[in-house]
Amino acid sequence: MTLAAEDTPPGQCPQCWQHAHDRRAHRHLGPREDCPQCVDHMVNGHPYIVPKKPSRWW
User: Quick check: helix, strand or coil at residue 4?
Assistant: First the structure.
């Protein structure tokens, strides 16, 4: 799911972002069926977060 990495805003997980905004990600699932990738994220956390740009406030 590398397509989402280009559009993912800083500080977000590319997989979570794609699964939340792309209907194709869960199209193969039946009614009330859990997505194995989403369940894995809920249990184990995010493997990668798009880095944020350093703050230049100071």
Answer: helix
Q: Is the dihedral of CA 45, 47, 52, 54 positive or negative?
A: positive
- Torsion angle defined by CA atoms of residues 36, 19, 7 and 46, in that order, rounded to the nearest 10 degrees: -40
How many CB atoms are closer than 10 A to CB 12?
17
pTM: 0.69
pLDDT mean by block of 10 residues, the chain; 58 residues: 67 91 91 92 89 79
CA distance 39 to 54: 31
Cα 58 to Cα 49: distance, rounded to the nearest angstrom: 24
